[in-house]
Amino acid sequence: MNFQKTIKSEISCTGIGLHSGRKVNMTILPAGVDEGIAFVRTDLPERNCIKADFQNVRNTVLATTIGTNGTSVSTVEHLMSAFCGMGIDNAVVEVNAPEVPIMDGSALPFVNLIKEAGTEVQGKHRKLMVIEREVSVSEGDGYAMLLPWPEFKISYKIDFKHRLIGQQPYRLTFSSSAYEKEICAARTFGFLKDVEYLQAKGLALGGSLKNAIVLDDDRILNKEGLRCPDEFVKHKILDAIGDLSLVGMPIIGHLIAYKSGHRLNNLLLRELLAHQECWKIVDASFREKSTEEFDSTTIPSFGAIRAVMA
Predict the structure, then answer these.
(1) How many CB atoms lie within 10 A of CB 139?
(2) Among 98, 14, 93, CA closest to 59
(3) Neighbouring residues of 153: CB distance < 8 A, sequence distance ≥ 6
(4) What is the pLDDT of residue 46?
(5) Looking at residues 252-262, what average pLDDT do you find?
(6) If you average pLDDT over every residue of the chain, what do you get?
(7) How many domains does the structure of the chain reveal?
(8) Band of the pLDDT at 75, cuts 50, 70, 90?
(9) How far apart, in whole angstroms, are the C-alpha atoms of residue 204 and residue 160?
(10) How far from 240 is each of 144, 194, 262, CA to CA, in Å?
C-alpha cells in the first residue's frame, strides 16, 4: 500500500444514472503517477477533465457532484470509495452522461471491475495526509471530526426515526481487505415517500429496488432484504470513504461522525485544509519507518468517540 497504483488495463461497464434514469457507459483507463483520479465527459463536443478534488465539489444534495468550467459529473462517491478501498491512486474515468452509473447502489460492482482489470504498482511512493490536531464541523445535531491516529479509522453512527433503522454505530479500521469484506457491498437506501416526491420533481428517475434499499413506514420493500443487519450505517461509511478520498491522498487519522453526510464530509475537508497546523503530508516510505513512533499523547479526549458509539 506504500506505492501508488493504477489499473492494469482498460475496463468498461454500462448502467443507469440514478437521477437521470439514462443509460450510462463508463470506461476506466490507467493513468500515470501523480495524475490522481480524473473524470472526462465523452458526451460533450470538447474534451474536458474534472479532477476528483474536494475543491471541485459543486453539489452535495443526494450525491456528490464535482465540476469545473461549467462541466460536472454527479454521484461520484461510490466509485471514489471503490478506488480508495482498492488502493487506486491514478485513473481516468470516461462517462457519456452527467453522472456515474448507480449499478446496484453499492461499490461492489466497481470493486469487481477493478479486480477484473487488475492493478499495477507504480514506481513512486504515495503521499499521506497525517492528522496532527483535531478538526471538526457540525450542522444541526450532526457532526464530523478528524483526530490524530496511527492509521485510518472510522467511528460512525447514524440515527433515523424509523423502527427498522434507528441508531446504528459501527467502527472500522481501514484496509483493503476490511473494505472489501465489510463495506463495499452496502447499498444506498431511501424512503418510499421521498422517492415518490423526488421522482415527481424529475429526480431519482433511475432509482429502483435494483439499486437501492427502499423502506415504507413499516418494512423493507426489497424482497431479498438486507445484505447484513447494519447495511445502513455501512453504506454511510462507504460514502464517507469516497467523499474523504477527494482530498487526493490517503488520510492517516480517526474519522468520528454522527448523522453526517456528503455536505458535512466535504465541509470537514475544507475545514481541515484551512488549518495547516492540523495536518502534514509525508511520504509513505517515511511513514512506514515512523509508525511505531506515534505519540499517543497527541490524541484528544475520547468523549466524542464514546458519544458516537454509545
Answers:
(1) 13
(2) 98
(3) 171, 172, 173, 174, 253, 254, 255
(4) 86
(5) 98
(6) 92
(7) 2
(8) very high
(9) 21
(10) 10, 22, 7
Q: Are residues 70 and 15 in the same domain?
A: yes
Distance CA 138, CA 180 (A): 29
Amino acid 177 reads S
pLDDT-derived band of residue 297, with 50, 70 and 90 as boundaries? Answer: very low
In terms of DSSP bridges, do strands 71-73 and 65-68 run parallel, antiparallel, or are they unpaired? antiparallel
Residue 295 has pLDDT above 60, yes or no: no
Residues shown for the chain? 310
Residues 159 and 282 in one domain: yes
Give the cell for residue 270: 475544507
What's the rounded mean pLDDT across residues 45-69? 95
For 11-46, give the DSSP string: EEEEEEBTTT--EEEEEEEE--TT--EEEEETTSSS
- In tens, the pLDDT along 185-206 reads 999 999 998 888 888 888 788 9
Domain region containing 156: 128-309
Dihedrals φ, ψ of 230, to 5°?
A: -105, 35
Express each pLDDT in 10-46 by its tens digit.
Answer: 999 999 999 889 999 999 999 999 999 999 999 998 8
Residue 112 sits in the same domain as residue 148: no
Note the Cα 179 to chain centre separation in Å.
11
Cβ-in-10-Å burial (0-12, 13-18, 19+) of 128 comes to buried
Cα–Cα dist 210/206, whole Å: 10
How many CB atoms neighbour CB 127 within 10 A? 16
CATH number of the domain that residue 49 is part of: 3.30.230.20
Name the grid cell of 72: 460536472
CA distance 310 to 304: 10
Contact status, residue 50 vs residue 73, Cβ threshold 8 Å = yes
Positions annotated as catalytic residues are 262
State pTM to two decimals.
Answer: 0.93
